[in-house]
Amino acid sequence: MSFNIIVDCTWPCPGGTDHACILTNSSIQCQQKHNSQWIWNDPTSAPQYDGEPARLHQPCITAPVPQLTPFFNNNNLTTVNATQTVVTWPPMDLYRPVDAYLSDCGSHYFCHQGTCISKLKSGQSCVSSHQCSSVCNNNVCQDDDPLPPAVTTPSPQQQDQQQQQDNTEHDGPWAKPDFTTGHLIGVIIAVIVLICAIVLFFLYKRKTRPTTTTTTKPKPTLPKTLQDVDNSLPTPPTASHLSTPSMQQHQLQLQLQRQLPSSLSCPSPSSIPPPYSP
Question: Which residue in 172, 130, 14, 21 sits closest to 82, CA to CA?
């Protein structure tokens, strides 16, 4: 059930862009922004968590519920003074209601017993639209918009806020990088460079490899004449090369035979003695 309350906030808050309407367990007032806060950017929509969204199976925190005093006045959004405003609490936001399931979980999860889990599928029972991908209608999750004609769709401002939340989830430090065409071109160029490097390496190794040369022995040539045969025969060893006594003696005998006169080797007829006669 909604009722009017007085909050110490104006939209926008005084103090510049670094101030916003902050929702805590004790109050709703304009404060300086810092990380991990619940910021109420629009009094007609639910507060949003300004920080890194919780992922699947990570601990989650729900939105604070301050103790507020109803303000009985028929003029909604009436400024009480320069720093206060009368607003309706909780905001009538069917897609993001202010209930026990409004948490810091990402857009694909909801907080269940202090942990982010995947949202329910279409047709499953639910108690809050935070449990469904679209909306919870008659305690059943539905993919298509089941709103009755009297209920309007989210305003453009709410859609922009939801888009900003989705962008924050995808652009955070835990988001996975998108594989773009530039990445594909880079991978193709890297593969081509690697292939060229491998080919050049094998060509270099093949060029610097030592080559083995086979030497062919010359074929022996036959002597054509006797002179060539004589020249090819080994010369007999000289006396200077003879070391054994037997060889020296044999050599001396050969020299003596060469020095004997021819008369000794072949006697003449005049030197033959006459035959013996009795």
Answer: 14
CA gap 76, 98 in Å, rounded: 18
- 108 and 119 in contact (C-beta within 8 Å)? yes
Q: What is the pLDDT along the chain (278 residues), one digit of tens a residue?
A: 788 888 999 999 998 889 999 999 988 999 999 888 999 999 999 999 999 999 999 999 999 988 887 887 655 555 578 889 988 888 888 888 999 999 999 989 999 999 999 999 999 999 999 999 889 999 999 875 544 443 444 545 556 666 666 665 555 555 555 567 888 898 999 999 999 999 999 888 888 876 555 555 555 555 555 555 456 555 555 545 545 777 878 788 887 777 765 545 555 555 555 555 55
Owner of token pair 């004997």: 260
Query: What predicted TM-score, i.e. pTM, was given to this entire model?
Result: 0.49
Q: CA–CA separation, 102 vs 91, rounded Å? A: 13
Closest listed residue to residue 16, CA positions, set 36, 30, 34, 27: 30
Of 50, 47, 83, 86, residue with least CA distance to 65:
47
- Whole-angstrom CA distances from 50 to 55, 157, 273 are 15, 17, 158
Our separate counts of H helices and E strands in the chain read 5, 10
H helix or E strand, kind and range, residue 156: helix 156-171
Strand, coil or helix: 118: strand
191 is written with which tokens? Answer: 């593969």
At 202, is the secondary structure helix, strand, or coil? helix
